[in-house]
Amino acid sequence: MSVPAESATPENPRADAQRGFLYALSAYLLWGFLPFYMKAVAHIPTAEVIAHRVVWSIPVAGLLLLWLGRTSDIKGALRSPRTLALGCLTATILSVNWGVYVWAIGAGRALETALGYYINPLFSIFLGAVLLGERLTRLQMAAIALAAGAVALLTWETGGLPWVSVALAVSWGVYALLKKTLPIGPAQGFFLEVLILIVPAVAYLVWLQTQGRSHFLETGSNTALLMGAGLVTAIPLILYANGAKLLRLSTIGIMQYIAPTMIFITAIFIFREPFSSAQAVAFVLIWAALALYTYSMFSNRR
After folding, report:
1. Torsion of CA 282, 283, 286, 290, to 10 degrees
2. C-alpha dist (Å) from residue 112 to 10, 107, 166, 274, 275
3. Domain residues of the chain, as ranges?
4. Residue 184 backbone class (left: φ over 0; alpha: ψ -120 to 50; beta: rest)
C-alpha cells in the first residue's frame, strides 16, 4: 500500500486517472474481502497456506509478464547480485507479513490486522524521516504521536505490545521502503520475490506430503482453496501496482483506508470479535491521526 504513485500521463490524464482509480479500487476491495478467504483456510496450518500462496502466484504473475513482454527484466534481475540480494530481503519480509496476517485472521484477531494497516501509512512517514531524512510537518508529527499513543494504550490495557498490529505495520512499511530500491517494476519485482520463495515453499510442501500431513488433494474444497491462494495473492498486488502508476499520491493515500475499514467492519459485525473500550479509544486515536495525516498531505500538495 506504499508504492509511490506517478502522475497520469500527459496524453490523456483523465482516462489514465479513471483507469488507475478502477485498478486501485479493485485491489483495495479484494484486500478488504480477503479475511473471508483466510477464514475459509483457517483449519490449514499457516505455513502450508503461505507455501501455496507462493507456488500458485508463480503462474499468475508469470503469465502477466509474458503478456506484457517484460520477461527480459527478470533475466536481468537474476544476473544482478545486488538485485537478487534485495529480492531475497523483500521476499523474506513479505512472507513474514503474509504469515502474521494469515495466522491473525484464523486466530480471530482481524481487528488487530485492521489496526496494523491503519498504522502503516503513519509508520511509513516515520521511516522516511528516520532513514531518508525527510522533514516532518507539525501535523505529521502530531499524527505519529497519536498513533504511538494508541499503541501505548493497547499495550497498557492488554499487558503486552499489540504485536500483530505492530508486526503488520512494520513489515509492510519496511517492505514498501525496500521495494522502491528494486531496479525493476512492481509486477516484475513480485514475480522475482515468489520465484525466490518457490524453492523453500516446494521443499516444505513435498515434506508435508511425505509425512502425510498435507491438506492439498485431501478434499476437493481444500485443493481449490489452496490453488486459489495464488489468485487472491497476485491479482490485488498487480492491480494495485498498475493503479499506483496512474494515480496521484494523494489519491492513493486516501484509498488505502478502504481495506482496513472493510476489515474493521467485518471483524466486529460478521466475525463478532470482542471490541473493548480501550480498543475503541485506540481506533479513535488512529482515525484522528489519519485525519491529520490526510489533511497535511493535501496541504503540502497545495
Report:
1. -170
2. 41, 11, 9, 11, 11
3. 13-301
4. beta
- What pLDDT sits at residue 255? 85
pLDDT tens digits, 91-101 = 999 999 999 99
> Which of 155, 158, 168 shows the shortest CA–CA distance to 115?
168
pLDDT at 198: 96
- In this prediction, what percent of the chain has a pLDDT beyond 90? 57
DSSP string, 129-189: HHHS-PPPPHHHHHHHHHHHHHHHHHHHHHTS--HHHHHHHHHHHHHHHHHTTSSS-HHHH
Report the 10 Å Cβ neighbour count for 167.
20
Label residues 224-247 b or e (16+ Cβ within 10 Å = b): ebbebbbbbbbbbbbbbbbbbbbb
Tell me 208's DSSP state: H
Q: Which residues contact 168 (CB under 8 A, 6 or more apart)?
A: 97, 100, 101, 104, 112, 113, 116, 117, 120
* Lookup: cell for 54: 507462493
**pTM for this structure?**
0.87
Three-class SS state of 284:
helix
- What tens digit of pLDDT does each residue of 179-199 get? 878 888 878 889 999 999 999
Cβ-based neighbours of 76, under 8 Å, separated by 6 or more: 83, 184
Collapsing DSSP to helix, strand or coil, 274 comes out as coil
For 276, which DSSP code? -
Span 2-7, mean pLDDT?
Answer: 42
Residue type, 77: A
CA–CA distance, 156 with 169 (Å, rounded to integer): 19
Which three three-digit cell numbers place residue 30? Answer: 479484494
Residue with the larger pLDDT of the pair 114 and 239: 114
